[in-house]
Design a protein that fits this description.
The chain is of the alpha/beta class and about 400 residues long. It contains eight helices and 25 strands. The strands form five sheets. Strands 7, 8, 9, 10, 11, 21, 22, 23, 24 and 25 form a ten-stranded mixed beta sheet that branches. A five-stranded parallel beta sheet has the order 13-18-12-19-20, with helices on both faces. Helix 6 crosses helix 7. It is elongated and about 75 Å long. The structure holds guanosine-5'-diphosphate and adenosine-5'-diphosphate. The site of adenosine-5'-diphosphate (ADP) has 14 residues, from helix 2, helix 6 and helix 8. Belongs to the guanylate kinase family.
Length: about 400
């Protein structure tokens, strides 16, 4: 058998001067875990925001408190938490007495994503991801040169299977085209606002494309996946490269034109760009097609010559035919008890209901197949109740 049951919601010694700015008793609601020389205290709220649970770090060696940058959307504060240190730089945080779709959270303190963000931001970083039961189907990344037909193919898919696919609405600093709606085709935004949000860790990826800034916010992907739909991202090759390096486990498809002449004709016929912009897009297309075909990012390359044929090939590689079932979200609820103890047994977390008048049921949280992570969602959680006899 593996390691001995180990549980631990350790309160720090009384009377500490904490990062919340006051010398205080640890509050009942605060929870701390120790990793090496550091304690991570989870409680209170983040920068005075009552809707965002706070995180503080205490370094034993320097006896100093610090407030890390907190990335991702974290849990809302509640009546209490259990926390346990997992492998690979994560802390499992269980909200007491919460419904199962909001009870399991992961605070990443030393994962590759967090290490990368630390380097980028030059300061201490932690990142939240929400635990989600089961596995949604992989998001789909579609790239290809401007005018090749990505938008057309995506629209066909969304029209035919409206409850199966959802579009990740990107942010961009380019001006809206005639008929483009903010929040539907893009979130049209200001460069300084977008740069600030990138700095705040709100984006899964971003890139400068044809002279404008484009990016996928973490939220835009979460909105789609949380609704139980398969998320489609229409992003350029640089963005696809970033997504490939992130925790988002996706399918990567590159769409090629039959020829450069045909691409030019399509761009002109669309009538949405000025001559100067068309020239810029055609110049970039060459490099993009080369990168798409040879970068090793894309598992699938589609040639969009005849539209109907290309659409059929797209559906084939996504494993859907005309009678494909509509995928849904699992809704069975298991509420985590307010009073409980938590024990770790290898990859399983045993949550034992305690307290008077309870049935002493045990809930088993199986983390052996989790995937994904911050920023976004940790998927693949299995939750089961073992009734006490
Ligand atoms: N990296 C990245 N690229 C994006 C994003 N959204 C759109 N793009 C890409 O930006 C490029 C230009 O998009 P757009 O201005 O809508 O022109 P279009 O491709 O000709 O329709 C295309 O290659 C898109 O795939 C994003 O969020 N991130
Ligand atoms: N297979 C095709 N044959 C001819 N025209 C096409 C084909 N696919 C797309 N188009 C047209 O080409 C233009 C560019 O397509 P669009 O979907 O906007 O490209 P993208 O999103 O890749 O920039 C649109 O006017 C569209 O109707």
């Amino acid at each position: 058998m593996g390691e001995a049951p180990a549980f631990f919601v350790n309160h720090l010694e009384n009377g500490y001067t904490n990062g919340f700015g006051v010398k205080s008793e640890p509050k009942n609601r605060d929870t701390s875990v120790q990793i090496g020389d550091r304690s991570f205290v989870i409680g209170g709220n983040h920068e005075g925001n009552p809707l965002f649970l706070g995180v503080q770090i205490h370094d034993k060696i320097t006896n100093k408190w610090s407030s890390p940058s907190v990335l991702g959307t974290g849990p809302k504060p509640c009546k209490g938490y259990s926390a346990i240190v997992l492998k690979n730089g994560r802390i499992l945080v269980i909200k007491k007495g919460s419904a199962s779709d909001d009870s399991i959270w992961f605070l990443e303190v030393d994962t590759s994503f967090v290490r990368e963000q630390k380097k980028l931001l030059g300061r201490e970083v932690v990142a939240w991801s929400k635990g989600v039961r089961g596995n949604a189907e992989k998001p789909i990344v579609i790239s290809g040169p401007s005018g090749v037909g990505k938008g057309t193919l995506i629209s066909m898919l969304m029209k035919e299977f409206p409850s199966m696919f959802g579009f990740s609405v990107s942010h961009t600093t380019r001006a809206p085209r005639f008929m483009e709606k903010c929040g539907v085709h893009y979130h049209f935004t200001d460069k300084t606002v977008m740069e600030k949000e990138i700095k705040d860790g709100k984006f899964l990826e971003f890139a400068s494309v044809h002279g404008n800034l484009y990016g996928t916010s973490i939220e835009s992907v979460e909105v789609v996946t949380d609704s139980g739909k398969r998320c489609i991202l229409d992003i350029d090759v640089q963005g696809a490269r970033s997504v490939k390096a992130s925790s988002l486990d996706a399918i990567f498809i590159f769409v090629c034109p039959p020829s450069m002449n045909e691409l030019e004709d399509r761009l002109r016929a669309r009538g949405t760009e000025t001559e100067e912009q068309i020239q810029k897009r055609l110049r970039n297309a060459d490099a993009e097609i080369k990168a798409g075909e040879s970068s090793g990012i894309f598992e699938h390359i589609l040639y969009n010559d005849n539209l109907e044929e290309c659409y059929k090939n797209l559906k084939n590689l996504l494993g859907i035919d005309d009678h494909a079932p509509v995928n849904g979200v699992e809704v069975e609820g298991i509420n985590l008890p307010k009073e409980h103890t938590v024990t770790k047994m290898e990859e399983k977390i045993l949550i034992q209901e305690t307290g008077e008048g309870t049935k002493n049921n045990m809930i088993v949280l199986d983390l052996s197949s989790i995937n994904g992570g911050a920023p976004g969602r940790t998927r693949g959680i299995v939750l089961d109740t073992v009734k006490s006899s």
